[in-house]
Structures are given as structure tokens and as C-alpha cells.
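Lab meeting, item 3. Inverse folding demo.
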């Protein structure tokens, strides 16, 4: 591994629990988006997507190197790159960064995300999840 992204060691089976969590958050996000109405504040929907992406990233790094990101979620893509190297396609890294970039805004900010915005981000998450599951 290169770089010094914040990380903590985990046991060999930790990735399985994070994968279950990732899928549960993805399912919740899909259901919430399906039920969302135009004009509704979709920050909670996107928050589920962010949590899912974080858990998918954790499952990948935990399985490959028995480490997960610690503290700053903006650094999670760096850890994923450190662990996977060239196995992380640039497009997937961009998706991961884009999803995580919404974390502070939807969880602590005041701007309301739209249903359309949530739909575009959900498509990114679904693609990231497909790729992650294939790699696992």
C-alpha cells in the first residue's frame, strides 16, 4: 500500500458484515427513492446512499487488506486506491468520490436535494455496488 490514508485494522471476516450493511442501505435508498414525491426533501434518501457507498468501500478494503477507513470519509477513496491500486477503475473512483461528496451537505447542510438529484446519484451507487460485488 502507498500513502497514509487514515485506517484501522479489522478482522478477516469484517468485510462480510460491511457488505450486508452496504446492501441494506442500498435497498433502503432504492425504496425511499421509489416512494419520494416531487418537491420532497431527498436528503435522507441520499444519506442512505452515502452510507451504502461507505460500507461497500469498507467491505472491499477489509477483504483485501483487513483495513477500513477511519474518521474522514473524504479520504475513503484514497484508501480504496491504496488497497486496490490499478484494480480500481478511474470511473468507479469518480463515482465513489461523487457519492461521498454529498455526505456533509445532506447530513448537516440546509439545501434540500431533489428527487431527480437523488435518482442520478442512485444510478451511480448502483453501478458502484455492481462493480464492488463483482470484485468481492
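The presenter then showed the designed sequence:
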Amino acid at each position: 500500500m502507498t500513502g497514509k490514508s487514515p485506517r484501522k485494522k479489522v478482522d478477516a471476516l469484517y468485510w462480510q458484515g460491511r457488505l450486508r450493511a452496504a446492501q441494506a442501505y442500498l435497498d433502503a435508498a432504492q425504496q425511499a427513492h421509489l416512494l419520494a414525491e416531487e418537491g420532497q426533501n431527498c436528503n435522507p434518501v441520499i444519506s442512505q446512499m452515502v452510507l451504502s457507498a461507505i460500507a461497500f468501500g469498507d467491505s472491499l478494503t477489509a477483504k483485501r487488506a483487513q483495513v477500513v477507513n477511519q474518521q474522514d470519509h473524504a479520504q475513503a477513496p484514497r484508501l480504496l486506491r491504496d488497497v486496490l491500486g490499478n484494480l480500481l477503475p478511474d470511473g468507479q473512483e469518480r463515482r465513489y468520490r461523487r457519492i461521498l461528496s454529498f455526505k456533509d451537505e445532506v447530513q448537516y447542510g440546509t439545501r434540500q436535494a431533489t428527487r431527480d438529484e437523488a435518482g442520478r446519484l442512485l444510478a451511480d451507487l448502483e453501478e458502484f455496488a455492481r462493480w464492488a460485488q463483482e470484485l468481492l
